[in-house]
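Board notes (copied after class):
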Amino acid sequence: MSIKAIDSHTEGEPTRVIVEGGPDLGGGSLATQAKLLSSQFDHLRTAVVLEPRGSEVLVAAILRPPENPTSDAGVIFVNNVGVLGMCVHGTIGVVRTLQHLGRASTTPGETIQLDTPVGPVTATIKPDGVVAVKNVASRRTSHRVPVPLDDRLVHADIAWGGNWFALIEDHGESLEFERRGTLTKLASRIRRAMNAAGQDGTGAHAGPVDHVELFGPPADGGHGRNFVLCPGGAYDRSPCGTGTSAKLACLAADGRLAEGATWIQESIIGSRFSGTWQAGSEPGTIIPTISGRAWITGESTLHLDPSDPYRFGIF
């Protein structure tokens, strides 16, 4: 079995787009196809994303026919632990890949609409080649939830930006790249504590926290810097598009960022996303737009040899 893929990175975070040879997921909704992928074809997810072909940081995007007649393509995002609801850095990578393949416009001002399991998203091409993604409706559901740890008390805002986030500012740590190991351990402890509380009925959020986002002051002229722990234990090299969307929802709820104003989010490696928001149709929701750059890094054919005991990944 062979799978054709195109790799890119968005502000440092890799995306692998499956352009040929993916699983047959039928013609239902993207949400239904995502469930089918998880239940019947998860071995192909692991083959593409995990070692020896991938790594814990890799996000893959499986191109699908569009769900809506006005959309250009459908896409399902997966990582090393399963299906993702949405992935903004991955969306930017998909748009760049479609441009590379000649399936999407590179003309400034043109828009591209992609269907995802959590709803349609629109990307606009900017004159400098930056891709601006209009994300799904985002919202904050809880403010300053106390999270007791064995050595400190932190407070988390819980927000949805296409995935569930716990956003913490009073963690007491310096957000420096050289300290990523320490930050990973702290974010993992916070996630375990919050989800354990949710399991016994005391949780203050509407879904399991799959991402933890630690915030601090900017290092290079932005408005803030973050460290984002992803569901599989890897940290996000980019500023995290769904995480920046969740941050915008919190800023909007606190009255700290006006509608239409720009927020520059720095990642732990120093790359940047810019974000703006507009009011959503439902009370308490916003529609964030996240802008960033992606670059093609390679094209490959992945071979799944039946004699290879690790053809479906190492896990």
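Comment from the instructor: The helical segments are 30-40, 42-49, 88-100, 180-199, 241-254. The chain has two domains: 2-125+296-303, 138-292.
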